[in-house]
Amino acid sequence: MESETTGQEVAIRAKRHVTRAITQVSRRSVLAGLAAGAGLGAVMPAIPAPARAAAPKKHVFLLVHGAWHGGWSYGPVERYLAGDGHRVLRPTLTGLAERSHLLDGDITLDTHITDIVNLIQWENLENVVLCGHSYGGWVIGGVAERLLPRISSIVFLDAYIPQDGRAFVDSLPRATRTAVRRLARQGALSIPPPPARTFKLNTAHLAWVDSKLTAQPIRTWLQQIRVTGAQYRVPKKTYIRASGFNSPAFRDIHARLKRNPAWRTYEMPCGHDAMIDMPERLAEILAEVA
Fold first, then answer.
1. Do 238 and 161 reside in the same domain of the chain?
2. Which of 11, 59, 128, 174 could be a cystine partner for 290, CB 3.0 to 4.6 Å?
3. Bridge partners for 156 per DSSP
């Protein structure tokens, strides 16, 4: 009986020894395979990493306001563009809005062009989407003459397009030209702002805009501009018409450029200050043409 029990114990111990040996060999084999770069990959096909959608490209938008306005007018548009991760700059031109304390008789169109040129240079901006509203069209046209390689897209927002040898005032209706030149002869430094309703704004915005408008330095409208057509050599060119504002000049520019395949054109059913009346739609268009 004792020998039979002893024999069983020996058999059990031998079985355990064999099991441990097999387990150790298996572990060594797996570890060796992993060290050799095989491992589970030797028996399981590699699983490709999930495809990642390309991140939307981010752009730099430099938004130039029109006469009597300031960088404040693009605040609603900035919220939409910046919310999508774009960089937005909306400077105020010398002598207007929060810079109205600098108003004097030496401010010209060249001053305003230099405002934007210096911003681009000092901020080291490249591939700029440059947008100018109304009078701002003359400013961005002058900027293109000086920094064309840095501008990837130019946008005229219900704006005048500068013509060589002409002053901004020459683009305006006769009655306005006469009134401005009369002010200049009287020695005025600036042109008083009209009421906001002139721009056919949504009535909800009238009081706010009226509280922000400031006088326009008069010589910015009287200085002749020298352009060689750099604005037409920008790779991407866009004209946006605010159709709720009755302007034969803007209507004619839009109609002419609509026939030109080098330009993209849009119409927005709103007042002249499209960036205030329809900021979300304007932000969408700017992103499309960037």
1. yes
2. 59
3. 132, 239
Q: Is 280 helix (H, G, I), strand (E, B) or coil?
A: helix
Residues 95 and 15 in one domain: no
Within-domain flag for 216: yes
Does this model's pTM top 0.90?
no
pLDDT digits (tens, 9 = 90+) for 192-204: 999 999 999 999 9
Six-digit token pair at 180? 């401005």
User: For this structure, is 134 an active site residue?
Assistant: yes
- What span, in angstroms and rounded, lies between the C-alpha atoms of 46 and 38? 11
From 3, 73, 100, 134, the catalytic residue:
134
Query: Alpha-carbon dihedral of residues 140, 142, 147, 151, nearest 10 degrees?
Result: 30
- Give the per-residue pLDDT at 112: 98
Q: What is the pLDDT of residues 81-121, one digit of tens each?
A: 999 999 999 999 999 999 999 999 999 999 999 999 999 99
